[in-house]
Design goal:
It contains four helices and no strands. The chain is mainly α. Helix 1 runs antiparallel to helix 4 and helix 3 packs antiparallel against helix 4. The protein is elongated and about 50 Å long.
Amino acid sequence: MKKPLVAFLLSFFIPGAGLAYLGNWKGAFINIGIALLIGIGCAILLPDDFFAHYGRYIGFGIAGGSGAFARQKAIEFNQTAGTGAATGQV
């Protein structure tokens, strides 16, 4: 069983770390790549004054999204593990 709160916090502070905690390394690298692409894309495409003012909120949005995704995957992981244990499959 994996703790959804731990997965959330890990991915909130380091995108993809919560998925790595769950053993989903491919998903972890994809998650950090997407987070970086969104951040870099916003820095390049948005006007400097807009990004300077709203950049931290964009970062919080990316972090929150990454954390929420990892939390949901942890819940699904636990449900699958619970179902496998109940049916005798591991």
